[in-house]
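Project outcomes to date are best conveyed with an example. Our students and postdoctoral researchers have been running inverse folding experiments weekly, and each run begins with a structure described purely in tokens. The record below, which covers 420 residues, was selected by the lab manager from last quarter's runs and is presented without edits.
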């Protein structure tokens, strides 16, 4: 006999809370409640367990979101699904779903490119920075390729208004390459390939073999010259430190403290300006807990509160007006992500020191001058270390080592003239 499961009530389903990890909870026999982690919004949905082929490992088929169907409706869908599986043992549930979608749109209306873009983003669980980039790609694509075109009209060899879908994609990619943005063109073509694969595999809106885009980088031949972010040599940093203290341009203190924070712990500027005071009020004192949605990596990150950073936080506390560490006095939110860079330009360091360049400052001097390992530097910068397999087994955050280095790094900076 299978494992006995006590059936849930609808009120019990409502009471289930999201946790840092994804949950799969049995709510009745072979019916499960899937709960996304807190970092992805904690959404709930129902799935049914099945085996296809019959002697394979258990798999799970999504029945619908808890926002759209009740527990009772999920049980009805489970019953229909299991009856269908019994009557169609040689057809996979995914193929059934695909055929149903094809049939649906053949009867009602054929989806358009705009429909595809909307459907893709409504089901996306990407990190905020990646999602913003992809939305920008989509916005520009829809300027070149009409969102009213039917998906089937944009297949590899399908023509509409004298051009095939492939020709339209190449035209858009060539326009980007013509601006000298080869690397950007690779990313955009990769995105186009991804959304059309979504149309084929997840939606059943396009036949296999009709994706109008190659995988990332197949047709891009021109490469954009990489311009590294400039950063000052160690011996020239006192010039910057002195400018921060003298402040001849009478720049607001909040802007200057954003620069000092980047010097002490060079987060990406997009993450820096979105830091909140709530991130300090966590159970582990001594760390700023930055949530995944604020980080480009899409992972939670901890910033050590060293004595130097604590001194800086004390100064920011005196100037606190809202929930953000670096507030904007214009809209009562936070500084714009470009604010630190523009501040450096106003101070006269254009072409010599970028806001992003402080990451190179720490990496270079941390390894060469101070003798710390490069992998530790990468962890301090929030970069991924090793390949996917290595990261799957090595999940340590090396907090003690990071605290030790960031503290030593602050000492070096203060010895070189930095003042908090």
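After processing, the design step wrote out the following sequence:
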């Amino acid at each position: 006999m299978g494992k006995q499961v006590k059936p849930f009530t609808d009120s019990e389903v409502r009471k289930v809370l999201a946790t840092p990890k994804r949950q799969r909870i049995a709510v009745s026999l072979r019916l499960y409640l899937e709960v996304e982690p807190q970092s992805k919004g904690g959404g709930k949905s129902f799935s049914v367990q099945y085996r296809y082929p019959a002697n394979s490992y258990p798999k799970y088929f999504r029945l619908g979101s808890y926002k759209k169907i009740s527990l009772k409706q999920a049980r009805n869908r489970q019953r229909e699904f299991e009856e269908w599986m019994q009557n169609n043992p040689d057809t996979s549930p995914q193929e059934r779903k695909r055929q149903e979608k094809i049939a649906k749109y053949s009867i009602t209306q054929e989806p358009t490119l705009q429909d595809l873009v909307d459907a893709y983003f409504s089901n996306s669980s990407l990190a905020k920075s990646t999602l913003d980039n992809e939305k920008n790609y989509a916005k520009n694509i829809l300027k070149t390729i009409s969102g009213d075109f039917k998906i089937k009209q944009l297949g590899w060899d399908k023509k509409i208004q004298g051009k095939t879908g492939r020709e339209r994609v190449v035209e858009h990619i060539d326009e980007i390459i013509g601006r000298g943005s080869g690397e950007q063109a690779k990313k955009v073509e990769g995105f186009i390939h991804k959304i059309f694969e979504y149309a084929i595999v997840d939606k059943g809106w396009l036949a296999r073999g009709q994706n109008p885009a190659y995988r990332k980088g197949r047709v891009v031949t021109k490469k954009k010259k990489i311009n590294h972010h400039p950063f000052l040599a160690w011996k020239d940093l006192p010039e910057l430190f002195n400018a921060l203290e003298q402040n001849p341009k009478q720049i607001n203190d909040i802007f200057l403290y954003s620069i000092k924070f980047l010097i002490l712990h060079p987060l990406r500027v997009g993450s820096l300006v979105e830091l909140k005071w709530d991130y300090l009020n966590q159970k582990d004192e001594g760390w700023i807990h930055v949530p995944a949605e604020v980080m480009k990596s899409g992972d939670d990150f901890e910033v050590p509160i060293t004595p130097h950073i604590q001194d800086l936080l004390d100064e920011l506390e005196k100037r606190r007006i809202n929930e953000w560490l670096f507030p904007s006095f214009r809209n009562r939110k936070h500084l714009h992500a470009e604010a630190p860079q523009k501040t450096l330009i106003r101070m006269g360091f254009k072409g010599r020191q970028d806001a992003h360049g402080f990451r190179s400052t720490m990496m270079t001097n941390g390894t060469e001058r101070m003798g710390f390992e490069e992998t530790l530097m990468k962890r301090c910068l929030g970069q991924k270390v090793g390949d996917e397999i290595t990261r799957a087994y090595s999940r340590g955050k090396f907090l003690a080592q990071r605290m030790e280095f960031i503290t030593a790094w602050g000492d070096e900076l203060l010895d070189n003239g930095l003042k908090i």
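Residues 110 and 150 are 6 Å apart (CA to CA). Strands lie at 23-28, 31-35, 44-50, 59-65, 159-160, 163-164, 287-290, 301-304. The training component of this project remains on track.
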